[in-house]
Amino acid sequence: MKIIEVNNLTKSYGTNHVLQGVNFHAQSGEIIGVIGKNGAGKSTFLEILMTIKQYDAGTVIVLDENIASLPMNRLEQIRKQISVVLQPTQFYKTLKVEELLKLFKAYYNSNLDIKKIIKEFKLEPHRKKYFDKLSGGWKQIVSLAIVFLSEPKLLILDEPTTGLDPHMRNMLWTYITDYNERTGGTVILTTHNMDEIELYCDKVMLINNGMNEVFDTTESILATGYKSIHEFYLKKVSI
Ligand SMILES: Nc1ncnc2c1ncn2[C@@H]1O[C@H](COP(=O)(O)OP(=O)(O)O)[C@@H](O)[C@H]1O
Ligand SMILES: [Mg+2]
């Protein structure tokens, strides 16, 4: 199955030509990091893959379907197999953490055990708290725990670790890699933390000046003589 195949993708906001010919593909089971400076077009790119943003030209295939030519009902079927992290602010303020998890478990028709999720995401001390009263980092962890209830084929995460402390970040990555190994699900995410790319991603795409300036395995990038992905980024991208 073609999880994602993107050819010559372009997208402008008025005269701001954000994506000017991006080529990208993702196979089943890959973990791919998308990097680039603020405003490079990472979120725009991910939103196009999520099928929630219009693009101007090029081909975008998601889960074997060309999304440009799909009727609404087929598009909805595709969307059901993709999970994305929702903005925490959209959650019901009146629900407690455990209630939220139960609600989404029912919504996704998930077989996963809520108790196990609570344990794995270290949510025990927070399970009876209102979502609204959690700190920013814990809100994010709960949002991510919810995403994993759906066991998606394709998981798209926009800066999932921004604002998380090192333990939270480690916990999240443990869960991402475990989900990936257990289900063979594909993960595409953005991050500004180059260590995460080096440690956990199979491939990396650098968006620079509207193009996928680099799209390669982290291994082959490091094999070309960079000490780290961090060094690679600093050398490739000007301020
Ligand atoms: N809805 C929008 N309308 C107009 N301009 C936008 C919109 N969304 C993003 N942009 C602009 O597009 C560029 C890329 O934004 P974005 O995809 O959010 O980049 P990144 O996620 O890499 O920081 C930025 O210049 C941003 O201001
Ligand atoms: Mg962004």
Automatic annotation (TrEMBL):
Keyword ATP-binding attributed: yes
Domain of life of the source: Bacteria
Keywords for the protein's UniProt record, in alphabetical order: ATP-binding, Nucleotide-binding, Transport
GO molecular function: ATP binding; ATP hydrolysis activity
Classification via SUPFAM superfamilies: P-loop containing nucleoside triphosphate hydrolases
Cited InterPro entries: AAA+_ATPase, ABC_transporter-like_ATP-bd, ABC_transporter_ATP-binding, P-loop_NTPase
Keyword ATP-binding found: yes
Pfam families (UniProt xref): ABC_tran (PF00005)
Domain ABC transporter intervals: 4-234
Matching PANTHER family: ABC TRANSPORTER ATP-BINDING PROTEIN, ABC TRANSPORTER ATP-BINDING PROTEIN NATA
Family note: Belongs to the ABC transporter superfamily.
Protein name, per record: ABC transporter ATP-binding protein
